[in-house]
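Quick one: structure for this chain?
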Amino acid sequence: MKTSDLFVKALENEGVKFIYGIPGEENLDFLDSLRSSSIQLILTRHEQAAGFMAATYGRLTGEPGICLSTLGPGATNFVTSAAYAQLGGMPMIMLGGQKPIRKSKQGRFQIVDVVNLMKPVTKYAQQVVDGNNVPSMVREAFRLTTDERPGAAYIELPEDIAEEPTEASIFDVVGHRRPDASEVSIDLAVDMIKQAKLPLVLIGAGANRKRTSDSLRDFIDESGLFFFNTQMGKGVIDERHDQYIGTAALSSDDYLHCAIERADLIINIGHDVIEKPPFFMEKNGKKVIHVNFDAANIDDVYFPQLNVVGDISNSVTRLKDKLGIVDRDFSFFGRVRDEVDAHVTKYFKDKRFPVLPQALVSLLREHLDADDIVTLDNGIYKIWFARNYECYAPNTLLLDNALATMGAGLPSAMAAKQLNPNSKVVSVNGDGGFLMNSQELETAVRMKLDLVVIVLTDNAYGMIKWKQEGVGFENYGLDFGNPDLVQYANSFGATGHRAESYEHFVEILSRSLNGQGVHVIDLPIDYSLNHSILNVLLQESACIV
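Got it. Here's what it folds into:
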């Protein structure tokens, strides 16, 4: 068979069902091989969006999402989505085309050294120079992208290699069992927890990736320990749990940091150094146990005293079995929990218009079931959702606290809906981020997705405005105009809505969630409390519990 046929068969052998992307003339052999395969090509309108969809596929399934581009400008459009997957711990494989490498009559036209461009933002980047190497390269890319810590890979298939004959055969898919933590480290961790006066559990992104929800919930239930989570650790344990304190959406000053400051031991499960630090360690301060697949990366604010290295779920189960009930007076943590709850819910029923982000959080939580999904683009509203939105199940609030790129919210929602057709999916975007990949509305309509897209309009880059105000600078350089989003949505075949009041928005939201097709809601947002709460009130408030 020709090399492109072998490449597609290698992908089928790995269980690939979808490829997102935009092919070019350098992919024509691959495209023809794909035509007669079991894999579905989902054509997008921008390569970056294809990468975001593939990364989200990887995030939700644990298996690499696959995306395709041509050479040069098509491949360079993958760079941001590669970084998104790499920093976010999402398995993804990018396939790129290239001019003939043995003989080309087009000189250097469109040629960029994409392989070396991709190396800093991937775990693996290689060009196929011989068709016989395809089976091993595909197998290695799948192995590396799913191994902890997950990330991105790039394979470039030149058009002359794609059409060459090959007699190579497919490699078997061989997995491996992650090693368990040593008995010594488990015993040391149990001793540290028993000796601590006020131990506290932190759940991070690594615990969310590997479906450790059941073992972690059992650990919390049986030990009686209180817990909080990072932004990307939300939902690993149902946040309605009595021992849940809150989400560390900020690195300091928020109300739950009262509990972090008082704790003398943090049991940090699934910590990912890429996330914004949920707390700052200081020398001669509290102790930290690092429970993860790998030992901790040490920096100025994170230097744990013990590493428990091995499969997280297994480590947590063994800790639970050896630890038993931690008999401590945790009433202080209970008071912090109540204080956090009182503050984050304060504006939930506020019906002012434009709407407050806190009220939006409350409305979405009321209208969505436990397994329904909210995806966020990046903006100031992400902090409000991280602090205020209760997650009842893993991966039901998809946000990016790693690369934190704009433009990912809509493509992420599309992949989430494709994988969860029976769940409601809502994409929340700022007007800045939405317009960065809004062309994918056409893709969503073509895919016949039932999707609700909320665009928070303040005609500015609101996150940077908040930062600008926080450091005392004058408002400058961050305001813009928007198109008529209703007409814009309608032009793609979606249904556009513009909320005119709080009550009108509630009506539109309910109708859209229960309707069919893609619904885009233009929702004016009131960010007037951002500075007064997040910059002023939190920093001035002492721990009063």
